[in-house]
Every structure is written in C-alpha cells, then in structure tokens.
Amino acid sequence: YAKISVFIFCVSLCNSHCRECLLLSLRIFSYSNSTRNRGSTDESLDEDEESLLEVEDVTAYLRFNKEDDGGYSLRGGPVDALISYAGSPLNIADKHYTEAFLLIYPTFVTHQELINKLIHRLQFFYKENRQTMWTSCVSLLVRVLKSVKLPLSQDIDIKVITLVYKMLSARQLKFAQLLRDALIAKLKQLIPDNTAKFAPAPKILTVGAKKHSIFDFRPENLAKQMTLLDAEYFYKLDIYEMLSWAAEADEEKSPGLTKFTEHFNNVSQWTKTLLLDKSLDRKAREKLMLHCISVMKSLRQCNNFNSYLAILSAIESAPISRLEWSERVVKNLEEPRALIDNKGSFKAYRDAFATATPPCIPYIGLYLQDLTFINMVGDKLEDDKSCINFNKRWKQFNTVDKIRLAQTKQYTIDYDYEVLAFFSDFEDRLSDAELYKISLEIKPRGTATMTS
C-alpha cells in the first residue's frame, strides 16, 4: 500500500498520466516483490562507517589551510566528513566547497557509495527530527541524483521511494516532490531521447548533385557549421569522463570524450588531405591555405577553439609545414601561432579562453593534460594518510569547472545541409604516411627553399 500511495502521489504532482509515472509505477511494483523476497531493505551502513555521517558539525575532523586574506580553505579530511560537510547547513561560509564537491567526488567515492551515505545521513537526522539538517541532506541528495548519468542500483531506488513515502506520510510535500522529481529524472534516462538539441545532422544524398569546392562557401559559413558539429560532441561531454581519463586513460569509461577527440583528429586529418591535394599547383595551394586561415579567424569569432586548433595542428604538421609558403601566408599565421605558444604553460590560449564570452568550445586536450599532471599528486594528505587530499581536488575542480561553465550556454546555429554534405563527416582523409609521401612528391627532399 505504501508503494501504491507513492505512485498516486507522483501522478497527482504532475497532473497527468505521463510515461515517467508509468515507468515509476512499474519499477515500484517490480521492486515490491523482490523486497519481500529479500526482506526489508537495510537502511543503515556498517557500525564502523556511520559515526561521522551522524555528526552535525564535522569541522573538527577536517583540515584547513589559512589563506592570505585571513580566511580558511579546506585541504582535506576523511571521506565521510567531506560528505557530511557538503550536506551540512554549517558550511554556508564555504560556498565554493559544495560546488567543488559535486564535480570532484567521483575521484574518491563512487556514485552509489555517495548516495547510500547521503541517504543514511538524511534518515538519521529525519528520525531525530532535526529538520535543518535533514533538509540540507535532501538538497544535496537531489543535486547528486540529477547529476549522476549512470542508472541507479535497485537498492537505492527502493530507498528513495521509501523516503518519498515517509515524507508524504509526514506531509512534507515539498521535499517529497523534490526527491520524486529527481527519481523521475533518473527514470527518463531509460527512455530514448529523440529530441536532443544537437542531434547529429542527417546524411545528405549527393547522387547527381553538384560536387562542391571549399571555395563555394564563405569562411564564416564553414566555421559556423564546424562549430555546430563540435557542439554536438561538446555539450554531451560528461565532466566525470575527463577525471576518469586523467586517472585511467580508459576509452571504454570515457566514450563521449573519446568521440570528441576522434572528431578533432578527423577535422585535422581532413584539413591536411585538403591542403595536399595533388591536383593543386603552388598558386592554388596558397589560395586554399589562405581560405583555411580565414576559416580559422571565423572560428575564433565563434569562440570555437576546438576546430580552430584542429586546423592549426594540420597546418603545423610535418607534411604541410615543410612546404614553401609565401610571406603573406606566414604573416597570417603569426597570430594563431602566438595563441598556441607553449610559453607560460600556454598562457596566451588560457587568457583568450578565460575572456571568451559563452557560448564557446575549448580545446579539451590542454585540460586533459592539466588533469593528468594534477593526478600525479597523492590522493591522501602527506601528514595524515586517513584524510583525502582536497588541495588536489581544488585544482581538479578549477580545471573542469572551466569546461562546465562553457557548457552552460549553447549555440543557436541552423544546419546548412550543403556545407554539411561537403564536409561528409570529414571522412575524406588520408593517413599520415600517405600524406607525407604526397608532401615529398610536391617538394622532394633536398629541394632548395625559394623566396616569394
């Protein structure tokens, strides 16, 4: 009856028999049988794990840095203390901590473990009738549930459903609805999403159609469509994948990141293939190079650093950079080369991206490099191995938060199907070995450099 009551409540909140509520009802009834077979769900953790989760103020268990301005920043603590501090109303003065915690926690606790621990803390203070404490736990739990993109375990679903029922029974409708909405958001992940804003562009049939040249399109139009294609990958990129990649470099655990990286490489390889077309004479190749540089300038205006650097990496590659280029080309490449200069840890690029107004798309490779370097720092504090090193997590947060902020505002660009058909998913590309062979045919080894 409790499960039925929760379902009726969920339906009444949305005022319609929506498919999400239907999914929730099916999940409830399927779980009710398994719960009876297993016995009641254990709502507590092991006794040796529960103490810090049941402490109201855990600051005594945390380690802090004293800042130059006289304030303090968290530098470490036990896992349960870090969780309790994030879900406590007592850390209001440390507003950035909760935001950092929500982005970085997968580096020291799994999604399932965190949710179980938060539920335990919530249940403890709920039983104690400490409303200020348990409502803070609800707020954090809801944010975690909404941020996790992986399916929840059956036990966690049951616990959340039970919490909704208890709050409903106690007429805590606001908090019951918050948890219900978070659970519904998770259930939506079971439904294929056919309404994504940046769905891949449909394949264009080109049989009998005019075969376009890159010169048929204005640089700004090419740049906009490149940005649209980059956006399809960038807005789907999960921040947690970047953290995982820095630690393990496992493509299976970072599918979105892997696809985004492959797209960058494809654009770069396609650009090389375009510039090394055997049919081009020197004058035509110069014209094509200047057109590519104009596309880069338009990409810069779109704040799309990803394709910008994909094209630049192609131009700077050995098969192309070894060829002879006019002073005009060299002059036009000064600004792009200055942007990606590695002096000061790529300070020019970092400053440019920091001042870019969203929407914008960063070059992910540099941030992966930063995260990999940061990951070399120890996970625990040197002076207390029982404490998570949160100094390291602050650095990770400051890196990935730039990516998160860039994802908050999306581009509004319409598809240009002629341009997209010309790109053809950047499939027309040769290997590096083939490209270098062509480069040697254009300019054999030992050929004297000519001035122009």
Can you give a write-up of this model?
- Helix 18 runs antiparallel to helix 19.
- The radius of gyration is 27 Å and the shape is elongated.
- Strands 1-2-4-3 form a 4-stranded antiparallel β-sheet.
- By secondary structure, it is mainly alpha-helical.
- 33% of the residues are buried.
- The chain contains 21 helices and 4 strands.
- A hairpin with a 2-residue loop joins strand 3 and strand 4.
- The N terminus is likely disordered.
Output the keywords:
mainly alpha; four-stranded antiparallel beta sheet; 21 helices; disordered N terminus
Entry summary:
With 452 residues, the chain is mostly helical. It has 21 helices and 4 strands.
Q: What is the strand and helix layout of this fold?
A:
Elements: H1 2-14, H2 19-38, E1 63-66, E2 72-77, H3 79-86, H4 95-104, H5 111-127, H6 131-147, H7 154-169, H8 173-187, H9 219-234, H10 239-248, H11 255-275, H12 282-301, H13 305-315, H14 318-321, H15 327-332, H16 334-339, H17 347-354, H18 364-374, E3 380-381, E4 384-389, H19 390-406, H20 417-423, H21 432-442
Antiparallel strand pairs: 1-2, 2-4, 3-4
